[in-house]
């Protein structure tokens, strides 16, 4: 057994089976908690064991300790599957987003620098609550009690022991040991199974009201009050019975799609999930990577190849103009907090199964006084791709035009630590609650947009999730 700085304990350097890893972690925690020469003191203790390859999502679906959380980056090089909460940071007050961002970072400053917390925010913390999102507050982040990670092909099973008071050390250690004892260590292939029968589908707003709301937005462009706004739709699915929300992830029919995968399940069968292509930003120290992603082409309209989709997008005046709003806004905003900003000149095309998107990558070096995630979050959220231009006016108009609460939809979701963070934008998402699942997706409106085409774009964006509901395995 080796113990490193920051109280990181590695029981065995060899990669073990999941069953053996659970055993050695339990023994290591018990030995450390009984130690008289090195008593447990307040702080974070991380017990981490290399393990043989195992699918993190399959492992997560087998566990029954909540909350459950899942994150996979777009490159598929980093995956976290976590259960339980060794520590949590949350807040649920109606206040400006900036206050919540600052509060999170203030609380995080008192935590271990190496600890990565998973969670998310509300899109707009001042929007009126409708009860749908009660389990998903203004922000909620957890440090998993136990997590399985895959990074660049290496797998680890990790337990977190967070001690706030020395008098609680033994009790906390016992809780962690019990959690490990309850782990289902079954291995094998992912057990795919179909979702229950889909009984009913309702769109909010319906097509008639959608058209009316879009026309109101288009009138704003004519009066030059706004240049762009993203309007969303809620598609409510009613199933015959409840089911594990992780089935959406397990049965996702396009595993190679360049999307982030995120799930946050605070209690059984209640979860927010997202298959989003959009990165908000990745931060390592004072360096951030972000991007402009806006402009969409529906491949099914031409039954075309990736090459044809790229050509159509790169020659679409409307899509290039929509993308320019996002790209220019991000570039200008980053100037105020960065000593160096590098925005790509050439447009890229991100290819998905049904859709293709214009995107442009951007890197920036933050000024030392602006390197807090609260500063970056306040600046970048909401991007013009999910809000609009100008930002504050778009936030107001969205609350007026959309007949539902966005909750965590289109908000920053991901992981954060004191020294690094990565957030995606929680679009192409669903709120699963028992027998009901609400899908959320939107379309960016600019001058010249056609409400009927934007409706069809939303149909395509939720198409991957709808395909799962029709899957028979």
Notes on the structure:
There is one protein chain. By secondary structure, this protein is α+β, with helices and mostly antiparallel strands. It folds into 2 domains: 2-94 and 140-181, Protein Transport Mog1p, Chain A; 198-469, Anthranilate synthase. It is built from 12 helices and 24 strands. It has helices spanning 18-34, 56-62, 97-108, 169-181, 207-222, 246-250, 306-314, 317-335, 373-380, 391-401, 451-461, 463-469, and strands at 2-4, 8-10, 43-51, 68-72, 78-83, 87-91, 117-121, 139-143, 146-151, 154-163, 198-204, 228-239, 260-267, 270-276, 279-284, 287-298, 338-343, 348-351, 355-366, 388-389, 412-416, 420-425, 429-433, 436-446. The strands form 2 sheets. Strands 1, 2, 3, 4, 5, 9, 10, 11, 12, 13, 14, 20, 23 and 24 form a 14-stranded mixed sheet that branches. Strands 6, 7, 8, 15, 16, 17, 18, 19, 21 and 22 form a 10-stranded antiparallel sheet that branches. Helix 1 (18-34) runs antiparallel to helix 4 and helix 3 runs antiparallel to helix 9 (373-380). The longest helix is centred in the last third of the chain and has 19 residues, at 317-335. The chain starts with a strand and ends with a helix. The mean pLDDT is 93.
């Amino acid at each position: 057994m080796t113990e490193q700085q920051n109280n990181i304990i590695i029981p065995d350097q060899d990669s073990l089976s999941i069953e053996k890893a659970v055993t050695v972690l339990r023994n290591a925690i018990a030995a450390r908690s009984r130690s008289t020469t090195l008593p447990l003191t307040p702080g974070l203790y991380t017990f981490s064991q290399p393990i043989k390859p195992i699918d993190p999502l399959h492992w997560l679906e087998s566990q029954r300790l909540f909350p459950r959380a899942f994150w996979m980056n777009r490159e598929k090089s980093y995956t976290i599957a976590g259960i339980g909460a060794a520590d949590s940071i949350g807040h649920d007050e109606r206040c400006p987003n900036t206050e919540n961002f600052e509060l999170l970072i203030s609380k995080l400053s008192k935590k271990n620098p190496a600890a990565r917390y998973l969670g998310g925010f509300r899109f707009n913390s001042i929007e009126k609550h409708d009860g749908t999102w009660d389990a998903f507050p203004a922000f909620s982040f957890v440090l998993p009690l136990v997590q399985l990670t895959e990074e660049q092909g290496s797998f680890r099973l990790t337990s977190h022991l967070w001690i706030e008071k020395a008098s609680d050390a033994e009790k906390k250690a016992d809780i962690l040991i019990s959690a490990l004892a309850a782990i289902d260590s079954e291995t094998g292939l992912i057990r795919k199974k179909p979702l229950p029968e889909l009984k009913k589908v309702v769109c909010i707003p319906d097509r008639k009201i959608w058209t009316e709301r879009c026309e109101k937005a288009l009138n704003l462009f004519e009066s030059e009050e706004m240049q762009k706004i993203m309007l969303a739709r809620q598609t409510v699915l009613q199933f015959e019975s409840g089911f594990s929300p992780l089935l959406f992830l397990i049965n996702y029919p396009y595993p190679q799609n360049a999307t982030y995968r995120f799930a946050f399940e605070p209690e059984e069968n209640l979860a927010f999930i997202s298959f989003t292509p959009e990165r908000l930003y990745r931060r390592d120290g004072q360096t951030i990577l972000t991007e402009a992603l806006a402009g969409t082409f529906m491949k099914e309209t031409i039954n075309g190849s990736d090459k044809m989709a790229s050509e159509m997008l790169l020659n679409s005046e409307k899509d290039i103009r929509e993308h320019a709003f996002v790209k220019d806004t991000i570039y200008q905003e980053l100037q105020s907090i960065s000593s160096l900003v590098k925005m790509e000149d050439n447009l890229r095309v991100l290819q998905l199964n049904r859709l293709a998107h214009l995107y442009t990558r951007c890197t920036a070096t933050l000024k030392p006084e602006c390197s807090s995630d609260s500063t970056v979050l306040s600046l970048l959220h909401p991007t013009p791709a999910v809000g609009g231009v100008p930002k504050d006016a778009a936030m107001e108009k969205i609350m007026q035009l959309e007949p539902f609460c966005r909750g965590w939809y289109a908000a920053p979701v991901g992981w954060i630590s004191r020294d690094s963070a990565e957030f995606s934008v929680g679009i192409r998402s669903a709120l699963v609650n028992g027998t009901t699942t609400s899908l959320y997706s939107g379309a960016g409106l600019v001058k010249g947009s056609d409400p009927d085409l934007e409706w069809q774009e939303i149909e395509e964006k939720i198409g991957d999730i709808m395909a799962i509901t029709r899957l028979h395995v």
